[in-house]
Amino acid sequence: MIETSYKIKSTPLVLDNTGKRYVLTVRDLPVEDKPREKLAVHGPGTLSPVELLAVVLSVGTRKEEVLTMTSRIVREYGERNIFSQTDAHIMSRDLDIPLGKAEQIVAVGELGRRFFSRERNGAAVIRTALDTYEHVADMRTLGKEHLRGLYLNAHYQVVHDEVISIGTVDANIVHPREVFRPALSCSAAAVILVHNHPSGVLAPSAEDMLVTAQVRSAGRMLGIELVDHVIVGRDGFISIPFESCP
């Protein structure tokens, strides 16, 4: 299943009797909020980048607890840039962290580049809603509503990309057969629907939800999974939650 949404929960802050704020250590967190336990029970999609990095680094240092360290690392390097640094010595110096910690981060980044490259054999690879949003960035400024289908193979590669309709997404206009005809032609294993809201309002309409439900139901019968329906606006995107569809 492709990740389509993220649940980010900030690290709790506590006030002691002097009013001083401090960050709880992992040891002090409730069991259900500890990164490793959350990963084991709920899967990696429920962890924030700070928590995922804490799982990778496992422990902090004498002067810095692991969640404090990873929060600072993500804040100073940025979520998108943290794995772009390939020199552990530079990272260690820039972030004032032990060389061993920097080497762990660099190694994870290299694994990601090797195994989950955004491009494989020239084809885009889409695994998350953010990947989808970046792939269809040109839709953000369209003046009319476009419904677009991204057709994936079993390796999450985009094997076909097609504008299905132009105009309001309406269940009376958008029939599932229009969505799945290209999927059958290119032997796709899965489909991602994307449409834009020129108004910039990202909240899905009742028609958006109905179209999603109809396409998802038809896909089940055909054995072609609808893995996401993403709404794109000028300043962001959302995934339509399947559980809220009729």
In short:
It contains eight helices and nine strands. With 246 residues, it is α+β, with helices and mostly antiparallel strands.
Characterize the structure shown.
Residues 1-23 have low confidence and may be disordered. It is built from eight helices and nine strands. The longest helix is centred in the middle third of the chain and has 17 residues, at 99-115. The protein has helices at residues 35-42, 49-57, 66-77, 88-95, 99-115, 129-135, 176-185, 206-222; strands at residues 13-15, 21-23, 119-120, 123-124, 146-152, 158-166, 190-196, 225-233, 236-239. By secondary structure, the protein is α+β, with helices and mostly antiparallel strands. Helix 2 (49-57) crosses helix 3. Strands 6-5-7-8-9 form a five-stranded mixed beta sheet, sandwiched between helices. Strands 1-2 form a two-stranded antiparallel sheet. It folds into two domains: 13-115, no CATH class; 120-244, 3-Layer(aba) Sandwich (Cytidine Deaminase, domain 2).
Topology, element by element:
Elements: E1 13-15, E2 21-23, H1 35-42, H2 49-57, H3 66-77, H4 88-95, H5 99-115, E3 119-120, E4 123-124, H6 129-135, E5 146-152, E6 158-166, H7 176-185, E7 190-196, H8 206-222, E8 225-233, E9 236-239
Parallel strand pairs: 7-8
Antiparallel strand pairs: 1-2, 3-4, 5-6, 5-7, 8-9
Helix pairs in contact: 2-3, 4-5, 7-8
